[in-house]
Specification:
Layout (H helix, E strand, L loop, with lengths): L5 H10 L7 E5 L2 E5 L4 H13 L5 E4 L3 E3 L11 E5 L9 E3 L3 E7 L5 H14 L4 E6 L4 E9 L6 E9 L3 E4 L4 E4 L16
Parallel strand pairs: 4-6, 7-8
Antiparallel strand pairs: 1-2, 3-5, 5-7, 8-9, 9-10, 11-12
Keywords: Endonuclease, Hydrolase, Nuclease
Protein name: Uma2 family endonuclease
InterPro entries: Nuclease_put_TT1808 (IPR012296), Restrct_endonuc-II-like (IPR011335), Uma2 (IPR008538)
Length: 192
């Protein structure tokens, strides 16, 4: 049996064909597969996307991201970049073009969204990472990425409860979170 390092997983991932209806990401050399998201999740993504001005910003759902020096290809729920900065084509969007990534926490993604993805996006120098959490009814906006690799993180963290306005200064807009739904009957966690 041959050992496969993280870079080997990146090559394997390029050719991997997931089953239909399954979202697949490569996170630090680990292939993560997820079932289709809950309706609450999808409605929140739509609500966030609709509030970001389309004239200036490209708002892309399920776009694979390319991160320099990372064996990762995350697929955030929403990627926001300046309309003029977007490439004409390609499967992978370079992280240095991105202004904001958005992840809506699912019942099974709490640790990934608050943990490894936080570090991955910070390592990719994505200026802002917004975690929308329908389990505990709050948003966590992370800004000012610092560090490299596993040690990367965001220096600034702002928590906003659902129902309160959330300022997205980098985009020149404010999110109305009052329409964000929650998952019924899901046990709360203690993150961020």
């Amino acid at each position: 049996m041959t050992a496969v390092d993280e870079r080997g997983m990146t090559k394997f991932f390029e050719e991997f064909e997931p089953p239909e209806g399954v979202k697949v990401e490569l996170l630090r050399g680990e292939i993560v597969m997820m079932a289709s998201p809950d309706l609450v999740h999808n409605l929140i993504v739509e609500e966030v996307q609709d509030q970001i001005p389309r004239k200036r910003w490209a708002r892309l759902q399920t776009q694979d991201i390319d991160l320099i020096d990372e064996a990762s290809e995350p697929v955030p729920d929403l990627v926001v970049l300046e309309r003029e900065a977007r490439p004409d084509s390609g499967r992978l969007l370079p992280s240095q073009l991105i202004t904001l990534v958005v992840e809506v926490v699912s019942k099974t993604s709490v640790d990934r969204d608050y943990g490894v993805k936080r570090s991955i996006y910070a390592a990719g120098k994505v200026p802002a990472y917004l975690i929308v959490d329908p389990i505990v009814a709050h948003c966590v906006l992370l800004t000012v990425p610092v560090g490299k690799g596993d040690e990367a993180d965001y220096r600034v963290q702002q928590i906003t409860k659902f129902g309160e306005p959330l300022s997205l200064e980098l985009l020149g807009t404010e999110l109305d979170t009052s329409e964000f739904g929650t998952y019924p009957g899901v046990r709360p966690h203690r993150r961020p």
